[in-house]
Amino acid sequence: MAYDPNNVFARILRGEIPCKKVHEDEHTLAFHDIQPQAPVHVLVIPKGPYASFDDFSANASEAEQAALVRAVGKVARDLGVAEPGYRILSNIGEEGGQEVPHLHVHIFAGRRLGRML
Ligand code: 5GP
C-alpha cells in the first residue's frame, strides 16, 4: 500500500485536525479514538510515513520500531490499564480491515473484552 500523505492521521500529525493527545515523543503520538469501541480506546502511531505494520516492520529504523513498542506499553501503564489488562490490535490491509492507511496500534481496555474476534 503506497503512503497517502493526506490520510487523516498524517493530518493529525501536521496539526491540521485536532486530537485528544495522551502521549508524544520523538517518534510516536498517541490519542483517543474518535469513535471508541471500549471504555478506553487509544491509538498509538509512528510519526514517520508508514502505511501499515507491514511497511513499518520492513522499513522503519530500529529506533522507530523500539519507540513504538515502548510507547504502547507506556501509554497503557499511564492510562492505568496494564492491570487488569488490555488488548492491542493493528489492522493491516484490506482483509485485515484497515481503514486509515497510516500504521496505528489500537489499545482497548476498561471492560472484559471477550474473545479475540
Ligand atoms: P482501522 O480500522 O484503520 O484499524 O482504525 C481506524 C480508527 O481510526 C477507527 O477506530 C476510527 O474510529 C479512528 N479514526 C478515524 N478518523 C479519526 C479521527 O479523525 N480522529 C481520531 N482520533 N480517530 C479517528
Name the descriptors.
21% strand; globular; 117 residues; binds guanosine-5'-monophosphate; 5 strands; 29% helix; five-stranded antiparallel β-sheet
Model description:
The protein has 117 residues and is of the alpha+beta class. The chain has a single domain, classed as HIT family, subunit A (2-Layer Sandwich), CATH 3.30.428. It is built from four helices and five strands, in the order αβββααβαβ. Strands 1-2-3-5-4 form a five-stranded antiparallel sheet, covered by helices on one side. A hairpin with a 3-residue loop joins β1 and β2 (28-32). The two termini are 24 Å apart. The model has no long low-confidence stretch (mean pLDDT 97). It binds guanosine-5'-monophosphate. The site of guanosine-5'-monophosphate (5GP) has 12 residues, from loops.
Shape designation: globular
Bound small molecules, by name, code or SMILES, are:
guanosine-5'-monophosphate
For the secondary structure, the number of strands is 5
Compute the average pLDDT.
Answer: 97
Helix/sheet category: alpha+beta
User: Please, how many helices?
Assistant: 4
Helix content: 25-40%
The total tally of domains equals 1
Distance between the termini: 24 Å
What is the class in the CATH system? Alpha Beta
What strand order characterises the main sheet?
1-2-3-5-4
The H/E string reads: HEEEHHEHE
